[in-house]
C-alpha cells in the first residue's frame, strides 16, 4: 500500500471562525506528535510574507513550528528536508505556476508518495493535490505550463462546492452544471465537490470524508450522489475501480 497521508480541506476559514479554526483538531490529529515543523507554501497569494505570518501564528498556537518555502534560498532543498507540507489557499493558477517555476512538482510527489510525509492542503492547496486544476473555481490570472497538478490522488476535487440556491435569480451555470460540462469531455476523472467545512482524510489506500458538512460526488455519465461525513471514499483511490463505477 501507499504510505501517503493527506488532509485535503475545502476552505481555510469557515463562517464565524478564524483561520483554520474549524479544522484545527483534525490538523493536530493528522500531524501528531512526531512532526515538529511544517513547511508552508504560500504561493497562491501575492503577499507571501503576510500569508506566512498568519499561517505561522496558527501553527505555533497548535504546537508546531512553521517555515515558509518562499523564505528559503533553495525551495527544492526545503521540500527535501521537510517533515510535513501545508499548501494554503488563494489563486490555484498562480499556485500551480509557482510550483512548476520552482521545480517542485516531482519533489513534493516523491516526499508524499514515496517518503510518506504528511501533506495538508486547503482550497487551492487541495486542488493542486489532485490530478489537475480543471475543476478549480479560480480565474486563470497567470498561465502555468500545464494544468496537470501533483496527482497525489487519481481524481479531482472542487473545493468550496456550492449547492444551487433555489431563490437566486442568477442565470449563470450552477457549480453542478459546470462540473457536468467538464465530464462531457472524454476520459475525465471523478470530481468530489467538497462543501465548506468538509475535508478528505487519505491514509494509504483509505479515504474518509470528515468535517461538519457533506460532499457531492460526480462521475462521468452518472447522476451525482450525496455523501455525509464518515463516508468511505477509498474506492476513488484505485484507478482500476474507477472504470467500473
From TrEMBL:
Reactions the enzyme catalyzes: Dipeptidase E catalyzes the hydrolysis of dipeptides Asp-|-Xaa. It does not act on peptides with N-terminal Glu, Asn or Gln, nor does it cleave isoaspartyl peptides
The residue ranges crossing the membrane are none
Its EC number is 3.4.13.21
Output the InterPro entries linked to this UniProt entry.
Class_I_gatase-like, Peptidase_S51
Q: Give the matching SUPFAM superfamilies.
A: Class I glutamine amidotransferase-like (SSF52317)
Top-level EC class as recorded in UniProt: hydrolase
Q: Which UniProt keywords apply?
A: Cytoplasm, Dipeptidase, Hydrolase, Protease, Serine protease
Which Pfam family, any one, appears in the UniProt record? Peptidase_S51
What are the subcellular locations of this protein? Cytoplasm
Q: Which domain of life is it from?
A: Eukaryota
List GO molecular-function terms, semicolon-separated. Answer: dipeptidase activity; serine-type peptidase activity
- Please provide, in alphabetical order, the Gene Ontology terms of the cellular component aspect for this entry: cytoplasm
**BP-aspect Gene Ontology terms:** proteolysis
Q: What does this protein do?
A: Hydrolyzes dipeptides containing N-terminal aspartate residues.
User: So what family is this one in?
Assistant: Belongs to the peptidase S51 family.
What name is this protein filed under?
dipeptidase E
Q: Which organism is it from?
A: Tricholaema leucomelas
